[in-house]
From TrEMBL, chain A:
<dbReference type="InterPro" id="IPR028598">
    <property type="entry name" value="BOP1/Erb1"/>
</dbReference>
<dbReference type="GO" id="GO:0005654">
    <property type="term" value="C:nucleoplasm"/>
</dbReference>
<keyword id="KW-0539">Nucleus</keyword>
<keyword id="KW-0690">Ribosome biogenesis</keyword>
<keyword id="KW-0853">WD repeat</keyword>
<feature type="compositionally biased region" description="Low complexity">
    <location>
        <begin position="25"/>
        <end position="47"/>
    </location>
</feature>
<comment type="function">
    <text>Required for maturation of ribosomal RNAs and formation of the large ribosomal subunit.</text>
</comment>
<dbReference type="GO" id="GO:0070545">
    <property type="term" value="C:PeBoW complex"/>
</dbReference>
<dbReference type="GO" id="GO:0000463">
    <property type="term" value="P:maturation of LSU-rRNA from tricistronic rRNA transcript (SSU-rRNA, 5.8S rRNA, LSU-rRNA)"/>
</dbReference>
TrEMBL record, chain B:
<dbReference type="InterPro" id="IPR036322">
    <property type="entry name" value="WD40_repeat_dom_sf"/>
</dbReference>
<dbReference type="GO" id="GO:0000463">
    <property type="term" value="P:maturation of LSU-rRNA from tricistronic rRNA transcript (SSU-rRNA, 5.8S rRNA, LSU-rRNA)"/>
</dbReference>
<dbReference type="InterPro" id="IPR001680">
    <property type="entry name" value="WD40_rpt"/>
</dbReference>
<dbReference type="GO" id="GO:0000466">
    <property type="term" value="P:maturation of 5.8S rRNA from tricistronic rRNA transcript (SSU-rRNA, 5.8S rRNA, LSU-rRNA)"/>
</dbReference>
<keyword id="KW-0690">Ribosome biogenesis</keyword>
<dbReference type="InterPro" id="IPR012972">
    <property type="entry name" value="NLE"/>
</dbReference>
<dbReference type="Pfam" id="PF08154">
    <property type="entry name" value="NLE"/>
</dbReference>
<keyword id="KW-0698">rRNA processing</keyword>
<feature type="repeat" description="WD">
    <location>
        <begin position="419"/>
        <end position="461"/>
    </location>
</feature>
Amino acid sequence: MPTKAGGGKRRRDIAKEDGAVAELAGEAEAAGTAASGAAEPGAVGAADESDSEDDGVRNMVGDVPLEWYDEYDHIGYGLDGQRLARPPQLDELDALIERYDKGNSRTVYDALHGELVELTDDDVGMIRRIQGNQYPDANFDPYPDTVEWVSSVPEKEPLWARPEPKSRFVPSVWERKRIVRLVRAMRSESYAKSQAAQAAAKERQRPDYNYAIWDETLEDLTREQRRLMYKRLNAPKQPPPTNAESYNPPAEYLLSAEEEAEWLATDREDRPSNFVPRKYDSLRRVPAYTNLPMERFQRCLDLYLCPRTQRAKLDIAPESLLPQLPDLSQLEPYPKRLSASYAADAGCVRTLSVHAGGQWLATGGDDGIVRVWEVATGRCTLSWDLGGVGGGGATPDAAPSAPRAAEPIHRLAFAPAADRSMLAVSIGPIVLLVALPHLHPPAPQPAQLTRAATAAIASAAVPSADAAALLAPPAAAGASVIAWARCDVPPPVVLAGRQAADEPRLPPALSIAHAKAAKQLAWHPRCDYFASVVPEGGARAVLLHQISRRVSQQPFAKSKGRIESVLFHSTRPHLFVATQREVRVYDLLKQTLVKKLSAEVQWISSMALHPAGDNLVVGSYDKSVVWFDLDLGTRPYKALRSHTLAVRAVAFHSSLPLFASASDDLGVQVFHGQVHDDLGSNATIVPLKRLEVHAAGQAGLGVMDCAFHPQQPWLFSCGADGAVHLYT
Amino acid sequence: MAGAEEQVIVRFVSEVDEYAVNDEPLELPARLTRYGLSELVNHLLRPARPVPFDFLAGGELLRTSLRKFMQLRALSGEATLELRYFPLVGEPELTSQQEQPDWISALSSRLADGLVVTGCYDGVARVFAPPAASAAAQALAANEDGHDQTGSALCELAPPAGAAASAIKAATIIGAPREGAVFVAVGALDGSLRLWRGRLRAEGGAAGVGVCAGVCVGHDGSVEAIAAAGSDESEDAWLASGSHDGAVRLWSVAAAMDAADAADATAADLAAATPVDEGGDSLGGGKAKRRKGAAVAPPPPPPPPPPPAERLAPRSILRGHSQAVTGVAWAGISLVVSASMDGTVRSWDAATAQSSHTVGGLKGVQALALSSDVRGGGGGGGGGGDATGALLAATGHDNGLVQLWDARARPSEAAAARLLSHTRWVSALAFAPASPYRLLSASHDGCLKVWDIRGKLPLHTLGAHGAAKVLCAAWGGKDGRAILSGGADCRLLVHATAHTEQ
């Protein structure tokens, strides 16, 4: 084997005379290498054979591997059987010399004869033609002219004139017989059977892929249902072509130069259409569609990039996504319409309060007059000018001597118990605490009865605390942060019935002088405490007043920011304090901060507590009303945006699931707010009715306050237009 | 004929013999309405003066064409429709009006003698005897300004000057006048319920004054409604009062009335030579009060201090309403019906003080009336047997609705009819004594409406009060045909209705 390798290498070296020849040899060798090892000399030998056909082959060993003769001094046998002597082997040096001697001559080593053969020009030419996939013979013509030995053209003088045989014109009897036989066979029953059997066999053999292999109930499905199981991805439906897509669109569909520039300037995805309408005289002039490659490309990109998941199309009506509102008739009773108006020429009516018994309504406004109305008839039973009192400033107990400009009443609030007709009025910087005993007559004592008190009487006569008596004891000096003082107020004008001549004037009122105007008052449910809010009061923004001890307390040592409103919890000793952005809940007994509710509004205006005490409604100057469920955390449960302007007041009904908000947009919105007993369900809030009766007041003020009747589904509202309305 | 009109077979039945026509079935065009039918009947009758008729079909007043009626009732066109007819209730005419110093908030009349008591917001109750309709019409015509001088008060009931007088919310006359004096119960806004003995003015004299015969103590809120029961003959007199505190209290006032009569007789005996006024102190203040309106002119000697008014305790307290009681009425002597702002109408057994029946809805009741044939004996003062017939109650509500309740039905089916025409708060209701079907309603929209409860539309709307709220209304006059009303315009108006059957 080393010999063979050495021989191969030698041949390669020798053959390096000309580039083309060397290539040829290399190819030949490569071909030999690719073939089996035994075939390699044969391949070379074959090349020699072709050569020897021209030159005459002297070595007659045939197609045997030449290395068989490597161990002999002859290389084979001639035609007559004589041994052919091995030509002398050139050593390396001789070979080099000879190569230089021969110069540019092209030689090929003839392995069969063991000699170098010089290639002629014809040989080289033939090799080049073979390389160029041409015929080796330069003179070979692959397309010679056709010689028509038998012409298709009828000749005028044919070689023979035999007529066409009759059989060419007569239907073949044998063919007819064969056809008849076939037709009979096809008509026969057996043929139909065989056809049916064939079709059935074909059908049987056809694989049925229309089944879900894991669906056991599939056999029950109809074919149509099975078809529907395999959803086809239909191509998106294209809109029908428009005029602009015509080859000859009307002029109005063509783009002007600016429009076209704009079209070009816009992003490809943002263009309204993916083409520019062009006008051509005829369809013949329409050029090729230049966008086609790009569109194909984009389409391929789409197919490549598109997700292969089939997204179920949402076939949902938008209305069905809205929450199901109950029928409003099921939510009755609620205030629906204007039922009465309490008319007084009072300017802006800022505040109103309903007596806990539900029979009286007190209103106060810019003219400084407290009016008490009988709710049922609209009669103003009491008119009480307090405008002069509020101007007293820091010395409220100094009797007002000269008439002053009336101080507006900022707020008034009845004590929330029916048997205590106490009214707190914030006028100017003063909070007045007055008793209106005649609004609720003191129940007679059984001892006063001349007749024997029956058992019924005893049960009827509930000892009731006289509001006037509450105010009568002198003030206790001591821990109060601000002074309480008796205040002589002008007597009220009673407009219903007449007063006794000897009846004492209204008991002297108590005045609590604040630093600035108290904008909000809140009663504790037990009527012994009330709180006043002075938004500009700094640390004294919130003051708690205890009536029985005549003491005012300052619950917060330092300012918590501007405080807008406070509320007492109905059952727990909690105080709700609303700053501009949040509502803080304090435990008054433990003196700790219980909770901090983030209202997510800019400026809170008012708040109201659900009678059960677990839900809070907050109104804000930025139009929204926010419902807090105190059990649900510190974020709002719902934000209601039914007003277009600032919300001035919110109110809860004390027994019915109703709440309302009053706004500067002149509307009072009534909501159904049902709180459920089970902890699993949240409150149901349904907007019920928008009551728009008020007219616009000065300075863009609208409805200033609203309050519910304590028992009936009635709503009161007062506005900057001076009107007070009752809706039932 | 191609355009043949739809025909309806109709049989006319008169409820009044005077207007009876042949009751053979007639075939009439279906387009006819009440007016056409009335013309037809007049054509058949040929009376001296045309009489407008009203028609009753199937228990309902005909207010549409016959065709529409048949459609609504789904009646076959081949069946004979029976139309009962009677003279149309005429438009009530304003016969007298009278100014009072303040809002008139309470009104009660007594049919037997035509006495009327009004309660005012100035705290004074006044007793009138409205003149007969014809005389009043003449007086109204004679007076240029329309103010009726003949209607001045027979007596004025008020605490003496200087004493407090609260605005009156309810007033009623108790029993027939005895010995020239009438007993009036007056409930006020401050929760006081006083029993007054008012001496009626003598002919040509000044208005009589009242003596407080008793103070009914126990109300824990304003007195919103009073009703009196008891016949003229019977010894007993009962009051029912509804208060804002939600309780109905029953009072027996006969003893106090007898005591007041006796005191008056004693005073008369004492002053046999020099007649003195009757006087009374409501609250026993002990101060000598100035009297006014003495019947006879001579200078009176200092009168003896009148005995303090007797304080009465309620005989029973009917508790069951959760909110203010706005209406009470007696059905016979033993059944009290009360209506409350909590929306319910309850009937109570007066003897046991138990609630026997409750009907109601969602809306608070503001006014109550009982149908006249069950009120017992016909009229406010009349007494008599228990309710026997249908107990029909009408309630007025804050949204202008007048609702009729059939007390015999189960509570869920008791709502009988809804009369909806008022636009505001219904403040007063009254069934006419003359007809069990006629109902008067007053509302804060300033209108009085006369209804026939067999129809859905009011028969007449009286707007004489203008835009002022009408606070009280009642049927009055001796024949029960006058309509009395008072309101926020401080006027007591009397409308007279024509004399019609049914």
